[in-house]
Amino acid sequence: MKTLRLNETGIDQAVKRAIERIPAEIRDHLKNIVISVQKRPSKEMREEMGLHRRETLLGMYRGISLKERTALYPPLYPDTIILFQEPLEDMCRTIEELEDQIEITLVHEVAHFLGMSEERLTELGYG
After folding, report:
1. Whether the Cβ atoms of residue 89 and residue 45 lie closer than 8 Å to each other
2. What is the distance of C-alpha 96 from the center of its chain?
3. In tens digits, what is the pLDDT along the chain, a chain of 127 residues?
4. CATH number of this structure's domain 19-123, picked from the four choices 3.40.50.300, 3.30.2010.20, 3.30.1360.120, 1.20.1330.10
């Protein structure tokens, strides 16, 4: 199987198209979240997530979920979703598959931010 690899412009466009497909209920929350693309997760990120060597990390949320925030302790840094380009590309053969996987990954990471239940994600078609 040929590996899909995009340049920086290509991955940025794929992320933008994937965001446009996300339901408004979730997409509206992306306005205050930084979305970053990195080639792959660092060793420290993998350890932070408790992943074993062969486990794949497609994205991660960094920040304080809405359920954990208080007026007395606002977040010090912007909420960030990091997408990992190479693991995402490795799962896909076409740009369409990549955009689907980016959409799914973003929705799951936003769900962490919102404190959304798995049941609600399933209702939205992402379970």
Report:
1. no
2. 17
3. 567 999 999 999 999 999 999 989 889 988 889 999 999 999 999 998 899 888 999 999 998 877 777 777 766 778 899 999 999 999 999 999 999 999 999 999 988 788 787 788 888 888 7
4. 3.30.2010.20
Domain boundaries in the chain?
19-123
User: Hey, is 84 helix, strand or coil?
Assistant: strand
CA dist 89 and 47 (Å) reads 22
Question: Which residues in 1-127 belong to E strands, given as ranges?
Answer: 34-38, 59-62, 80-84
CA–CA distance, 87 with 101 (Å, rounded to integer): 10
- Distances in whole angstroms, Cα of residue 47 to Cα of each of 7, 36, 65, 97: 28, 19, 21, 28
Q: Tens digit of pLDDT for each residue in 54-66? A: 899 999 999 887 7
